[in-house]
Write a structure and sequence with these properties.
This protein is an all-alpha fold. It has a single domain (12-73), classed as Histone, subunit A, CATH 1.10.20.10. 58% of the residues lie in helices and 0% in strands. The protein contains 3 helices and no strands. Helix 1 (12-22) packs across helix 2 (31-56) and helix 2 (31-56) crosses helix 3 (64-73). The longest helix is centred in the middle third of the chain and has 26 residues, at 31-56.
């Protein structure tokens, strides 16, 4: 799976505002870039696993139920508390 090349950069100001609103600690300079990259990897893994689920069910299209199946079974490698 290849991510499309876009000319726009990620929304750095928006990500920094979200981090500041939800974090009581000071964060480093490039933390927003790392968070954005982690988000992109998460979405990529989610889509790969959902596509696999859809193929297993002989579906021709990826649907919300396939994504729900992946998130409910924790097949994307996310640690839950």
């Amino acid at each position: 799976m290849v991510l499309s090349k876009s000319k726009r950069t990620y929304p750095r100001a928006t990500i920094r505002k979200i981090i500041k609103a939800h974090c009581e600690k000071n964060v480093g300079r490039n933390v927003d870039a790392l968070i954005y990259l982690d988000y992109i990897l998460f979405v990529q893994r989610l889509m790969q696993n959902a596509t696999r689920k859809a193929k297993e069910a002989d579906e021709k299209r990826l649907q919300a139920k396939d994504i729900r199946k992946v998130t409910m079974t924790n097949e994307i490698g996310v640690r839950r508390p």
